[in-house]
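Entry for magnesium ion complex. Fields follow.
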Amino acid sequence: MITLKHLSKSFDNGQSYVVNDVSLEIARGEILVLLGSSGSGKTTTMKMINRLVEPTSGDITIDGKPILEQNPVQLRRSIGYVFQGIGLFPHMTLAQNITVVMKLMKAPRDARDARARELLDLVNLPPDQFAERYPHELSGGQRQRVGVARALATDPDYLLMDEPFGALDAITRDELQEEILRLNKELHKTIVFVTHDLFEALRLGDRIAIMHEGRVEQVGCKDDILSHPATDFVQDLFAKPAEQLRYLTDNATDTD
Ligand SMILES: Nc1ncnc2c1ncn2[C@@H]1O[C@H](COP(=O)(O)OP(=O)(O)OP(=O)(O)O)[C@@H](O)[C@H]1O
Ligand SMILES: [Mg+2]
């Protein structure tokens, strides 16, 4: 379990807070979606979980251990991270990109190659075709798959995914969302997933935390949020999708 307690971050010595008193618990095996508009503090919150950003105040524990007492490099290697924008290394093959952390950890070449092939398979990129390609030889959706494979390389229990499917067409997005649900079900990964896409949040989130101006406005399962929005902001945010969802559900019943 990941626990955030009264977590805050200021980049200007306390004049303003981009993350403001956030408390959240992410249970083993769940997908928690952080949903919020641009600048609401989602990435900063994620980066505090793997110590790419240090909190101004508050605590984070993972499986009961305070992360500030852990070695940041080891901590980072133990948590899978898909960066916003993916960030593959252009001069490395896909196999090298996927196993870059394994190499830092001095895993032998054979083990790295085998793992890269296994993971390429897992994200539906046939290894014979893809292992030796370079990132510029891929489509956007394929690159995103490699980003996910890289985050899984050391078989971490926890995955942080920061808008991994931003800027993809609807069909590719749909396929990748399906894969995330499978990873969660079959490999029991605990996932914190950032998006500003409402439908993605509703599809993937066991629970959704809605962020606005650095604060968590509400956290709950989608039924709770849709039927009992805690604030005006949440109500407005879901007004449109709720109508569309009702429309889709009504239609489904009509044609049954
Ligand atoms: N290193 C930094 N120094 C100063 N301000 C920062 C820094 N990193 C982020 N911020 C500010 O913190 C706020 C929150 O940024 P953050 O990246 O967490 O937002 P986000 O919710 O991930 O947005 P997006 O959806 O656009 O990715 C923004 O106003 C941003 O400009
Ligand atoms: Mg962000």
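NOTE: Confidence is low (pLDDT under 50) at residues 252-256.
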